[in-house]
Amino acid sequence: MSAPDWAPLTGFRVAVTSARRADELSALLRKRGAAVTSAAAIEMVPLPDDHELRMHTERLIDAPPDIVIATTGIGFRGWVAAADGWGLANELIASLRAARIVSRGPKATGALRAAGLPEEWSPESESSRELLQYLLEGGIAGRRIAVQLHGATDDWDPFPEFLDRLRAAGADVVPIRVYRWHPAPRNGDFDQLVADIAEQKFDAVSFTSAPAVAAVLMRAAEMGIEDRLLSALRTNVHAMCVGPVTARPLVRLGVPTSAPERMRLGALARHITDELPLLQSRTLQVAGHKLEIRGTCVVVDGVVKELSPAGMATIRALAHRPGTVVCRADLLRALPGSGTDTHAVETAVLRLRTALGDKNIVSTVVKRGYRLPVDEPLARAQ
């Protein structure tokens, strides 16, 4: 048999919100067939200009911590690089060397060891919760704890509960917010991306950091479309996150999320490739054909059939209740725009039949409407 002329993500539209490595993620998704739209949700505050980071660094040099927590590899390396730029790297490493050092995962561990700072312990799960439990069991009352954080914005902190639990246990916490972020500027590509998510013009949106999630939510609120955006994310636009920390702001709002087992960019691309067709496609056996309905196309017997927005709206409306007659008035309401002439339905059906290649896939029921003559629904119908 010949290979299909489509890739796993053919016909699916994915929004990419990453600030870092967006081109890499976009390329991985496009290679798998997705139509990708990318707009960075956040912008980084340059480390040399981050006066808060320098102030906390100098505080730790003057009063070394008892415990150091490294949460990300890039964040810890960035902190050391910033200190080096200020001529403070040697003093910083010396102040941290006498402390108990714990790491949230292998990348943070690698960054610590590269700086000559061996870790005391790191959870295999890369879980902040497990890391917190380890510290609480050992007792931290009265201890001065430096927590290297990655991805804070001026309006949002990715680890508020983590820091609060440390303080509640009696610790003096010094938060080291490396790579603070601002939301992307107004009235640009990011605003359009947020509006398109709310309009359900994507099948999935990818998030590689919790600050990007926060920026999307904040911008939607500023634009007055927060309710529509959340409705989209709770229904037809699937939130694909790189890991549980990234997903947490959405989970709190009742948004379903999914994530790969490993918190890596390549793993996220593979996860989207594997999961999105299961979540956002519908497969039926119709008039002797295998029909798979995707985001922007239909695959008929392994052949991609490109459809117009009106064609996609029509086939989805018919597939909502396979085999059942759908009246012209209901199909008219499903079409893009707000037309009132049912002749638009007849035109849409005619063009849909032509695009599908077999007029029998959409059958006419005289004086009632149209239906998909289903042979049997397949397992992936949803």
Task: Note down, in words, how this protein is organized.
- The protein is α/β, with parallel strands linked by helices.
- It folds into three domains: 13-42 and 184-280, Rossmann fold (3-Layer(aba) Sandwich), CATH 3.40.50; 47-179, Rossmann fold; 282-377, Arc Repressor Mutant, subunit A, CATH 1.10.10.
- It is 42% helix and 19% strand.
- It is built from 15 helices and 18 strands.
- It has helices spanning 22-31, 51-62, 73-85, 89-97, 106-114, 128-138, 160-168, 189-198, 210-222, 226-234, 244-251, 265-280, 309-320, 328-334, 343-356, and strands at residues 13-16, 35-38, 42-44, 67-70, 100-103, 144-150, 172-178, 181-183, 204-207, 238-241, 257-258, 282-286, 289-293, 297-300, 303-306, 363-365, 369-371, 374-377.
- It is elongated and about 85 Å long.
- Residues 378-382 have low confidence and may be disordered.
- Residues 281-374 form the OmpR/PhoB-type domain.
- Pfam families: HEM4, Trans_reg_C.
- Keywords: DNA-binding.
- This is Uroporphyrinogen-III synthase.
